[in-house]
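Amino acid chain
________________
===
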Amino acid sequence: MSPVALAAPLARDLLRHTLPEFEARAKTLPLTLQEINDALPEGGLPRGGVVELAAPRGLGRSTSVALSACASAQAEARLRGTSATAGAWCAWVDSSGSLFAPAVARAGVDLSRLLVARPPMEMLAKVAVRMAMSRAFAVLVIDVAGVPGAFGQGAAKGERGAPPAGRREEDLARWVNVVRKLALATEGSDGTILLLTDRQAARPMPLPVAMRLELEQVAEDRLTVRVAKDRRGRVTSPTTVMLGSTVKAERTTGSEPRPALSRA
């Protein structure tokens, strides 16, 4: 056996002894927000699965967390010296047109390696699954929080535009199947799929995600993070984290789409 072949396993063993969390962290994607990493079971978001970021509708902090994941994945690829590989690419499915390019750049995301897709709302699920099946992206963000009618959202009862109850249940059941397809598409990969949902939306059944994080802003610079679901059963109580000068990502539900630099 060549010296190179012998050196590789020795190096891995050395890393495991000097860094006890080396093996565990390899299965997660740490955020650029260390305060939130500290609140997660393995110090980051699970790879090879779907993570739901559930926040009250309109809360831009879920967008900030998703942007942090994109920035982290791109930085990780640069550290590996693979800036020209698929590992540096992220994607955002943004049917509501709420993603604001300057806020994305301020979050440290390389806009030249962020693909923004804005499909019609009725094509959102199909486009998201096709993008997941490509396995071309280190992080794939699917924003359904700003899409009217998604996951049982919509106007309040009696208001114009509110979808019928039967329609809402059918829509939720359809998205349960969509999430299963997304999970199968990313299973075993190094990629992470983030699903931005409305925490306040009524749902008769949970989504089959690997992790569900519930976010709520309690002050200008403070956010509570709770692991409401984890594939290993590690549910936590709400943890308050200080965000300091964290980028305030903007959500502009109901306004004109703001420009992003790369679109599909």
